């Protein structure tokens, strides 16, 4: 219901706030948006709409800042309504295409490293039939500003160390034939509700039950990361079809 209450201008402002927050990791003020995102309205109009978006639950105002940041609801709107328009780069495609020539022994670990490198997120890859997953990208995700706080970094490390069993349980309960983004409180893994996680199944040369997950701050680049798992999923399906027709 709340989505239908948004005017087109408010949708544009919400999208701009989220993109700017993803870019800078800082609360966003109205005057920052007008020039950078070509909104063609005054800072006062943007400020008034941001107040309304706050009241509707899409934004919130940290008590130490005059700017605003997205809520889980705001990120959900961004993922569902803005759509995935970003295509991965040619060099990224080449990197991923080469993965499917890997031996079975190296496939999972190589995929985990490649996805972590491109997404800059903590990545898990493995088989849905097992409870142990290949992991990569822990040091990459810790470079995000959210983890400058030592306590935050420690909590994320504890989650990474203990997530295998909870993640395996999630895979037994949910079908990931299409990529799914769990944002903050939506995450079925309780200890991961301060973060966001994108999960997708993947057909590989070695298993039709491969799964890949990207875990990181709620400020993660959703469209890029969803594009990454989409590409891997489509490439895997295409490769399997080609093998079966030979």
What's the CATH topology name of the largest domain? Beta-Lactamase
String of helices and strands:
HHHHEEHHHEEHHEEEH
State the low-pLDDT regions, or none: none
In which range does the helix fraction lie? 40-55%
Q: What is the average per-residue confidence, as pLDDT, rounded to a whole number?
A: 88
Distance from first to last alpha carbon: 50 Å
Taken together, the total number of domains comes to 2
Beta content comes to 5-15%
Radius of gyration: 19 Å
What global shape is seen?
Answer: globular
CATH class of the largest domain: Alpha Beta
Please give the order of strands in the largest beta sheet: 4-3-7-6-5
Structural class given helices, strands, pairing?
alpha+beta
CATH superfamily of the largest domain: GAF domain
CATH-derived architecture of the largest domain: 2-Layer Sandwich
DSSP strand count: 7
- For the report, how would you describe the main beta sheet? 5 strands, antiparallel
Instruction: Give the helix tally.
Output: 10
């Amino acid at each position: 219901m709340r989505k239908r209450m948004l005017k087109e201008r408010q949708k544009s402002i919400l999208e701009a706030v989220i993109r700017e927050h993803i870019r800078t990791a800082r609360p966003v003020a109205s005057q920052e948006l007008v020039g950078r995102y070509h909104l063609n309205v005054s800072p006062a109009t943007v400020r008034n709409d941001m107040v309304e978006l706050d009241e509707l639950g899409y934004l919130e105002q940290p008590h130490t800042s005059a700017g605003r940041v997205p809520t889980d609801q705001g990120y959900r709107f961004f993922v569902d309504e803005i759509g995935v328009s970003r295509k991965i780069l040619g060099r990224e495609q080449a990197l991923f295409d080469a993965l499917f020539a890997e031996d079975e022994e190296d496939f999972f670990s190589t995929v985990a490293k490649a996805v972590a490198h491109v997404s800059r997120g903590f990545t898990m890859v493995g088989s849905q039939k097992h409870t142990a997953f290949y992991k990569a990208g822990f040091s990459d995700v810790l470079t995000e500003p959210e983890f400058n706080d030592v306590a935050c970094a420690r909590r994320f490390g504890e989650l990474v160390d203990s997530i295998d069993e909870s993640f395996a349980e999630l895979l037994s309960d949910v079908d990931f034939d299409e990529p799914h983004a769990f944002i903050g409180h939506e995450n079925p893994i309780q200890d991961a509700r301060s973060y966001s996680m994108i999960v997708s199944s993947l057909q590989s040369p070695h298993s039709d039950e491969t799964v890949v997950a990207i875990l990181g701050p709620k400020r993660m680049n959703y469209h890029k990361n969803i594009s990454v798992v989409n590409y891997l999923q489509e490439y895997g399906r295409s490769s399997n079809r080609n093998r079966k027709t030979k």
